[in-house]
Design a protein that fits this description.
Blueprint (H helix, E strand, L loop, with lengths): L6 H12 L13 E8 L18 H10 L6 E3 L6 H7 L4 H7 L14 E3 L9 E13 L3 E10 L3 E5 L4 E12 L2 E14 L4 E8 L13 E2 L2 E4 L2 E3 L2 E3 L2 E4 L3 E5 L4 E7 L7 E6 L4 E11 L6 E2 L4 E5 L10 E7 L2 E3 L7
Parallel strand pairs: 5-9
Antiparallel strand pairs: 1-4, 2-3, 4-7, 6-9, 7-8, 10-15, 11-14, 12-13, 14-21, 15-20, 16-17, 16-19, 17-18, 18-20, 18-21, 21-22
GO molecular function: metalloendopeptidase activity
Keywords: Signal
InterPro entries: Cell_wall_metabolism_enzyme, Dup_hybrid_motif, G5_dom, LysM, LysM_dom_sf, M23ase_b-sheet_dom
Length: about 325
């Protein structure tokens, strides 16, 4: 019993039983009070004549009461064993086997020679402790979004920072051999009200300004080459090949700031400034259908996929820049 309560707590319970009419003071911050301690079964004793060989030591008797057995069986894993078959062989469920072996998971790789506990402990008697506990807990704050037609779509600002609140919670717990089997909240007191988070979200649409949400720049297709080092040099964007048709689309609203061929290996290319910190580039085009200064909308046709410049086949080379720095296009594309 003293594994689950201290001698002082046990003495306090006994003292209250002698004076049952005295009021029990409320528990305070991070305080725990034992209300009652009992055993799950009535324990009695009697004198019996037995073979001396069957007499247990005090330690063995305590272990037998606590565990229901004097010996915990171990199983040594063999080649080809799986958790399900080990559990079945010892009349256990998989869940019971996992509980008996701390750290063991359902997808664990079993190595031959590992020892597993396969004995479910069924104590003859268990200690039940009723406690009263007080603790301070955080209260989550609400989140509110306000739309503002004067702010550009895609822009947000914090009008009011959210702050967690605090509450004092008094609970009654029932523990059986240290495991909580019942919890009930008796009283809650708000100590500090939470502060709502208020975010202002822009809704204003401007044809030449993107909102940062990109569409796939081709009609289907697959990524034939990702961003990263390739052939000892940095491949700054992604390559998209084999679409359902060769139309190239603007990833977001913006202004065309370049449309042509510089002879830099990209062949025919288009650069769109989305006027929100993002720029996108579309390269190796067979033809270009927009001009510098033109406003384009998300998903509108801007050219035809091709293989101009340094290209080994028909595909789109697509790059994305944020505030002048190149980023992985796949982080923006849905």
């Amino acid at each position: 019993m003293l594994e689950h309560v201290t001698e002082e707590e046990l003495a306090e319970v006994e003292s209250r039983k002698e004076s049952p009419n005295l009021p029990v003071p409320e528990v305070k911050d991070n305080e725990t009070r034992i209300l009652d301690v009992k055993l799950t079964k009535e324990v009695s004793q009697s004198e019996e004549k037995v073979d001396p060989q069957e007499v247990l030591s005090v330690q063995e008797a305590v272990q037998l009461l606590k565990k229901g057995t004097l010996e915990e069986k171990k199983y040594q894993v063999k080649e080809g064993d799986v958790l399900g078959s080990i559990a079945n062989a010892h009349n256990l469920t998989l869940a019971e086997l996992l509980i008996l072996n701390e750290g063991l998971t359902e997808d664990a790789v079993l190595k031959p020679g590992r020892e597993l506990n396969v004995t479910v402990l069924r104590p003859f008697v268990e200690v039940v402790v009723d406690r009263q506990v007080y603790a301070e807990e955080e209260m989550a704050y609400e989140k509110e979004v306000i739309e503002d037609s004067n702010m550009f779509k895609g822009d947000t600002k914090t009008k009011q920072e959210g702050q967690v609140g605090m509450k004092g919670v008094t609970s009654s717990l029932t523990e059986q051999n240290g495991r909580v089997i019942k919890k009930e909240v008796i009283k809650e007191t708000v100590l500090k009200e939470p502060v709502k988070e208020i975010i202002v979200k822009g809704t204003k649409m401007v044809p030449s300004r993107g909102d940062g949400t990109f569409v796939w720049p081709t009609n289907g297709g697959y990524v034939s080459s990702r961003q990263g080092y390739r052939w000892s040099r940095m491949h700054k964007g992604i390559d998209i090949a084999r679409p359902s048709n060769y139309t190239i689309k603007a990833a977001d609203n913006g202004n065309v700031v370049y449309a042509g061929n510089k002879g830099d290996g990209y062949g025919n290319k288009i650069i769109i400034d989305h006027n929100n910190g993002y720029r996108t580039m579309y390269a190796h085009l067979a033809s270009i259908s927009v001009s510098v200064g033109q406003t384009v909308s998300r998903g509108s046709s801007i050219g035809i996929m091709g293989r101009t410049g340094n290209s080994t086949g028909i595909h789109l080379h697509f790059e994305v820049y944020q505030n002048g720095k190149i980023i992985d296009p796949l982080s923006k594309l849905n």
